[in-house]
Amino acid sequence: MFIFQAKNLEKLGTEIFRVQGMPLERAKFIAKTLIEASLTGHDSHGVYYFVRYSERIRDGSIDPLAKPRIIKETASTALIDGHWAPGQIIAMDAVKNAVEKAKMHGISAVGCFRCNHIGRVGYYTNWAAAQGVVALMFVNVGNQNVTIFNGMERAFGTNPFSAAVPTGNFKPFLIDYATSVVADGKINVARSKGEKIPTHWSRNKKGEITDDPYAIKEGGWLLPFGEHKGYCLQILMELLGAIMTGSRSGFDEEEMPPSTNGVFVIAFDPEAFVGLDAFLKRTDDLLQKVKKIKPEPGKRALIPGEPEWETREKRLKKGIPIPEDTWNQILELADVLGIEVHV
Amino acid sequence: MFIFQAKNLEKLGTEIFRVQGMPLERAKFIAKTLIEASLTGHDSHGVYYFVRYSERIRDGSIDPLAKPRIIKETASTALIDGHWAPGQIIAMDAVKNAVEKAKMHGISAVGCFRCNHIGRVGYYTNWAAAQGVVALMFVNVGNQNVTIFNGMERAFGTNPFSAAVPTGNFKPFLIDYATSVVADGKINVARSKGEKIPTHWSRNKKGEITDDPYAIKEGGWLLPFGEHKGYCLQILMELLGAIMTGSRSGFDEEEMPPSTNGVFVIAFDPEAFVGLDAFLKRTDDLLQKVKKIKPEPGKRALIPGEPEWETREKRLKKGIPIPEDTWNQILELADVLGIEVHV
Predict the structure, then answer these.
(1) 3-state SS of chain A: helix, strand, coil percent to 5?
(2) What is the ipTM of this complex?
(3) DSSP code of A112?
(4) Bridging pattern class, strands B107-113 and B77-81
(5) How many helices (DSSP H) and strands (DSSP E) are in chain A?
(6) Contact residues on chain A for B233, CB-CB shorter than 8 A
(7) Cα gap A184→A159, rounded to integer Å
């Protein structure tokens, strides 16, 4: 395990994307979102993607210069053709558009198709909440590595859901998770670290219980979280993320870039309801009360987003740990691209 | 256990509410929603409430004649003061308003406060989906009988979530569940039937594992579903259902009617995105593929809403089973109200 400072990794990421034909502002933004993911402890969506996105730029899946275009629009809705631009650029366009419309009309929704991997979904909802609106994101992943409730074969992607709500003085409130028990990135990280995984995460290709992080690569599958209740969300993400937007569903057979995301964002302004001030005050008050709930022995009462916030503060000071395997891939990539690494 | 035909129970329910001062159309509608809940197998939200709502009419919690009023409105949003009218009347007003606005402007949201128990949330989202729009409902229950993830005391109500999506020829797609492992009504039903409950549903007042359906009545609590992921939804329901609408949160100490609901509805029209025809076609196609997923031995691949649909077809033919305890309470109530029972 290596440990590097966030700002140095961000510069390296920017350089990696820039030299592959990405305009500087785009390169900076994508590197920033990946570093934010690493800072918050979501290593599965962090610097790990320096190499993955580079592969996708080289194989033509990500078009560094493509411009997302709105193809259908009303005062409170939009549908964006991402034109296979970098997913982060498309998702940020969508969220900015949704926030603007929500502030004008109380509520809005924006869908995106032909969209590459957008990274950690919480980045966008958290950004929206910082503008004073609530944001919900329903995302499908256009592949199949998760089974359904009661299922014995691959069906959907890890189909993440995210929600963020503005707070007053309280830390940001953020929900951001895969509707599988874990994101597949978490299994990539376990492989990078050479670790076994918990047995309730996945099954091998025969449907047997396994702790092998390679089983998923060898025809196995992840399980949805929370039995039938988590499964309901998994399929809702598919219906809104993919079907509502015209994106690829896990079941579609046409050839597409790997890990495409169908993205559906809803944003709304507390001003249209109880009012922003009242909302912030009561939200802070509620979250403070939740923090005081008596926990089970040895456990803590946590607010959604709190572990990420804590990890972020720690890693901003102490640096971001990177598994040797991931780091070696980054060094190899930098070498191919002729970039000198200063971290 | 007694078994009665839905239409006879619906007439009885209508009569019970009518003689207590409810206008006929309201009485009919409330009875219909409760019978629909019983038909779909949600006995916890069905005829069981004939007696509970009657208690609340008598103690003044439910005002049979009150009219919900919109106190804040834009083209795509509304906030409704329910004035403690029957919850079903308020929720249906909200959903109708949301659907109308969604059809005009692509997306809408409507919140309700001072709202009594609205019954089975899926009734409303399912109704909206039948009008060709997607509906999401975020509901809090203004009491405390569920702990949080890692928690050792009561914090929130069972805070249900519901989502319905229009389908073409496929059965209705409906998500409708408590964010606790089970709705507390399911424990009421277990008590009525004299049955033990699974040990992962609740804890007794000391925080110990229990299979006693009375433990929850004696200071125990329910658990949120799906560990931290279900807990995130539980608290999101509180923030949107209660705080966004200005409704009572579980933590509020002011005296309020029992089982109040804070209700936040979002509705949106596929026409604003991929288009309704394309949405219906791909949704049907997707759900058919899900039905063909290989299941675990002895299990079935199920669509959200399918078990309810199957139970409904069966109970429409064979009748609705009612536990003796529930039925005796209904007979007693009918006697007090001077109603002759013909079922």
Answers:
(1) 45, 20, 40
(2) 0.96
(3) E
(4) parallel
(5) 10, 11
(6) 175
(7) 10
